[in-house]
């Protein structure tokens, strides 16, 4: 089960904590993408972060593309029309707008999260 997150709060916390919350958000996004696409063998968030760190960000570009593919696959499984968002996330990450890619991913993942009834 994935958790619905406020995109604005995640961005603000990432900026205020100088990126530390961004690392946590990256890990959560990875795990949530694996969960919605029913990919139990997918790379975990911690390993994805470690690989991104070791490769000086190169794995992060691959990660952005793969997360887009996983979200598209999850939509297709549920009969929701999808486009190739992996390319969009990759381009945003290449031009230095990774946080925008994170926000777009979170928006898509929030659609799969259960609605909280309070």
Record the SSE blueprint.
Elements: H1 7-16, H2 20-36, H3 45-54, H4 58-77, H5 85-94, H6 98-112
Protein name: DUF4234 domain-containing protein
Keywords: Membrane, Transmembrane, Transmembrane helix
Transmembrane segments: 7-27, 47-65, 86-105
What does this structure look like?
Helices cover 69% and strands 0% of the residues. The protein has helices at residues 7-16, 20-36, 45-54, 58-77, 85-94, 98-112. The chain is globular, with a radius of gyration of 14 Å. The model has no long low-confidence stretch (mean pLDDT 94).
Question: Which properties best describe this structure?
Answer:
118 residues; 6 helices; transmembrane; DUF4234 domain-containing protein; membrane
Number of E-state strands:
0
- Overall tally of domains: 1
Q: How many H/I helices?
A: 6
The proportion of residues forming helix, as a percent range, comes to 55-70%
Task: Look at the helices and sheets and give the structural class.
Answer: mainly alpha
Mean pLDDT: 94
What amount of the residues lies in strands? under 5%
Unreliable stretches (pLDDT < 50, length at least 5) are none
The Rg value, from CA coordinates, equals 14 Å
Q: Report, as a whole number of angstroms, the end-to-end distance.
A: 18 Å
| Shape assignment | globular
- Oligomeric state: single chain
- Major β-sheet profile: none
The succession of helices and strands, N to C, reads: HHHHHH
């Amino acid at each position: 089960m994935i958790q619905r997150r406020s995109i604005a709060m995640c961005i603000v916390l990432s900026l205020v904590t100088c990126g530390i919350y961004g690392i946590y958000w990256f890990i959560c996004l990875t795990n949530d993408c694996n969960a919605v696409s029913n990919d139990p063998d997918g790379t975990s968030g911690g390993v994805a972060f470690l690989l991104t760190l070791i490769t000086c960000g190169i794995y992060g570009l691959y990660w952005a593309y793969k997360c887009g593919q996983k979200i598209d696959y999850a939509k297709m499984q549920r009969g929701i029309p999808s486009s190739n968002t992996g390319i969009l996330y990759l381009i945003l990450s290449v031009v230095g707008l990774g946080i925008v890619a994170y926000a777009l991913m979170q928006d898509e993942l929030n659609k799969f999260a259960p609605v909280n009834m309070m």
